[in-house]
C-alpha cells in the first residue's frame, strides 16, 4: 500500500516537473521557498496598517529596537542592550553600531527619531497608532543614543518598541517607499508583481547571522481549501492557519500555542448574570479539555483562569484552569434561584477558528447545569457594535483576544478595565488598579498588581476564559522550521533541504 | 439610431448616479469602518481619535457634499484599506475580471450553439438526454464546490494545472471552466428549446417541402431565429458575471480581480473602494445593455429602437 503510494507520488512529481518545465508553473528551487499568505498587502509601508499580510513580509525586511526569541522573551534587536530609564518618562536606547539599510543609508539615532515621529504623527493616520499612544517624542543624544519620552510613566515601552519597525531617515519620505521598502533586515525587496506575488531575496550585507534561504516568494491565497491544495500540490512550502482536521493531509506540520485566547465576557450588572454564584457556575460548567480535544483536535490549551497569555508579562502563575464541576455548578445555580433563567450569549461566525462551534458548545454546557441559553450569532459588523456598546452590555459575549505586545496591559484594558473597551464589569476599583499598573515602572510591583487584578476577576468570574489556541502551520517535507509564539514568519529561522 | 443611443446614455447616467447614492448611504448605515481597521484591543478613545483623523466623524450630509463634488471629477477618494486612490485599484483589477469572464463566457457561447442544436435534432435521443443531464448538472453544482473539486483533480492529484493565482494562460483554464459552466448550461438549454420549437413550426415543413436541405433550414432559419434570445441571455450572463458571480470564482482561485477586491472591500468596510467598484460596474452594465439593444437591431431589422 505504502510503496504504491510512493510510486504514485513519484509519478505525480515527475509529471509535475515535466509540466512545470513546459508551462512554467514554477516549483521552487533548492534554497528558494514559497509561502502562502491570506491576502495581498495593500502597502509595504511598515508603519501604516495593522494587517497580517503586510506584517508577514515586512517582518523580514524591517527590524525593531527590541525583538523576541521564538519563545517570546524580549531581547535587544537593533538596540545594543535593553533600554535604561533616565527618569519616570524617559527611556535611553543605545543602538547597535555599523547597521545599514539596504539602500546604503546608515541606521542611527536619526533613523530612530524619524521612525518614532513618523508613526505617532496624527496626520500620518497609522492604524498602529494605538500601540504607541503613550509616546510623546524622541530625541537624539548622540549618533548611537536615543531618548524616547512618554506622556506618563510607561513600563510597556520596551514591548512597544518590539512592534515599531525602524525606517530609513530620508528614504521613508520617498514616494516609492510604500511599494519598494528598504529596511535593515535579513531580506530585501526583489519584486512585487501586483495581484500575483512578492519576492524577497537575501540581504548580502545583513549585520546578523546570514540566513540559509536565498529567496522567498509570497503568494496570496485567501480561501483555506485552495491554500491547502497549493501546499499538497507542491506549489508552496508553508501555509498558515491550517485547520486541525487537515493536519493529517499535509506533508508536514507544526503547532505552537499562539497569541490568541478565547474568552466570554460576563456582565456583572445584568439581572441574569449579576449573582456571582451564577457566573461561577458558568465557569465550572465548562469542560475545557473536551473543548480543546474534541473541537480543536488537541490544538488548544485550557486557559489558566485569565485572559493574559501564558508567555506574556503579567501572567498570573498562581491561577489555574477553572475546574470542570457540573454538579457544583448546578447546585450554585439552584442556590442562586436562577434555574431556568435565560442568559443571552452574543457572538459571530467565521472570524475566528471554530467560533460558532465554541459558542454553541459553551451554551450546551450552560444548559446542562440549569440555565436557558439564547444564542445571538451576528454578522461581524453588528457583533462589533455590541462588543463596543458601553450602554448595553450583553449578558455574555464571546471574543478572541490577541496579545501582540505579550504584555498584560492590552488584555487588561480590553476586558478587565471597566469603560475602556469591552469589559462588562462595573468594578471601578479594578479599573483604577489597571490604570495604576499601566504606569508602574517597577516590574516586581507591576507583576504583583496584575496578580491582584487577575485573582479578583477570577474569584468574581468576570470572565470565562476558554482556550489558549495553537497556531497550526502546514509545510512541505523539505522545509525545516520551528514556529514562534508571536506568530511571526521569520524566514531567517527557516531552512530548506534540497 | 444616434438619438436612441444618446437617450439611453442619459437614462444610464441616471441609473449610475442613483446606484452610487444608494451605495453611499448604505455603506454608511452599515457601520463605522474604524471598528474593523484597528486591533480589537484598541480603546474607545483610540477609536474616536482615528475616526477623527479619517474625517469619518463629520456629519453624513457634509461627507455627501464632498463625495458629490469629487464624483464630478471621478475622484472616489483613497481606499481606506489600501490607502491609495480607489479608482486606480478598480482600473488595475478590472482587466483581470474582464478577461476571466471573456474566457469563461466565450467558451460557453462557442459550445452552447452546437451542443444545443445537436440535442434539439432528436428530442429524447441519447445526445439530448446527455445534454439535458449535463446542463442540469452545470446549473445545480455550486461554483464554490466545483472550483475546489477541479483544483483537487487537476492541480493536486494530476498536477497538470496550477491551483490558483493569475499568470501564463494555463492559469485561466480552471477558473474559466468554473465560471463558464453554469452559463454554458443555461445557454445550451435555451438553444435546445428554441430550436425544438422552431423545427416544429409550419414554415420548416414548407421550407423542407420546397426542397431546402435540412442543414439550410437549421442554420438559415431555426438557429437564426434563436439568436435574439441567445444574445439577450449571453448579455445577461456577462452582466451577472460582472455584478457578482466572479466573487466566488475569484475567491476560490485567488484571482486578483474586481470580485475579490469587492469581497475584501466589504470585509474591511472600505466605503470608498466599494463606491468606486459599484460605480464602475454600474457603468459597464449600462454600456452592455445599450450594446445589446443595438445588436438586436442588426440581427432583426424589424426591431424598432426607441
TrEMBL record, chain B:
<feature type="transmembrane region" description="Helical">
    <location>
        <begin position="271"/>
        <end position="292"/>
    </location>
</feature>
<dbReference type="GO" id="GO:0005886">
    <property type="term" value="C:plasma membrane"/>
</dbReference>
<feature type="transmembrane region" description="Helical">
    <location>
        <begin position="170"/>
        <end position="191"/>
    </location>
</feature>
<dbReference type="InterPro" id="IPR035906">
    <property type="entry name" value="MetI-like_sf"/>
</dbReference>
<comment type="similarity">
    <text>Belongs to the binding-protein-dependent transport system permease family.</text>
</comment>
<feature type="transmembrane region" description="Helical">
    <location>
        <begin position="12"/>
        <end position="31"/>
    </location>
</feature>
<protein>
    <submittedName>
        <fullName>ABC transporter permease</fullName>
    </submittedName>
</protein>
<feature type="transmembrane region" description="Helical">
    <location>
        <begin position="242"/>
        <end position="259"/>
    </location>
</feature>
<dbReference type="InterPro" id="IPR045621">
    <property type="entry name" value="BPD_transp_1_N"/>
</dbReference>
<feature type="transmembrane region" description="Helical">
    <location>
        <begin position="133"/>
        <end position="158"/>
    </location>
</feature>
<feature type="transmembrane region" description="Helical">
    <location>
        <begin position="97"/>
        <end position="121"/>
    </location>
</feature>
<dbReference type="InterPro" id="IPR000515">
    <property type="entry name" value="MetI-like"/>
</dbReference>
<feature type="domain" description="ABC transmembrane type-1">
    <location>
        <begin position="94"/>
        <end position="296"/>
    </location>
</feature>
<dbReference type="GO" id="GO:0055085">
    <property type="term" value="P:transmembrane transport"/>
</dbReference>
<keyword id="KW-1133">Transmembrane helix</keyword>
<dbReference type="Pfam" id="PF19300">
    <property type="entry name" value="BPD_transp_1_N"/>
</dbReference>
<keyword id="KW-0472">Membrane</keyword>
<keyword id="KW-0812">Transmembrane</keyword>
<dbReference type="Pfam" id="PF00528">
    <property type="entry name" value="BPD_transp_1"/>
</dbReference>
<keyword id="KW-1003">Cell membrane</keyword>
<keyword id="KW-0813">Transport</keyword>
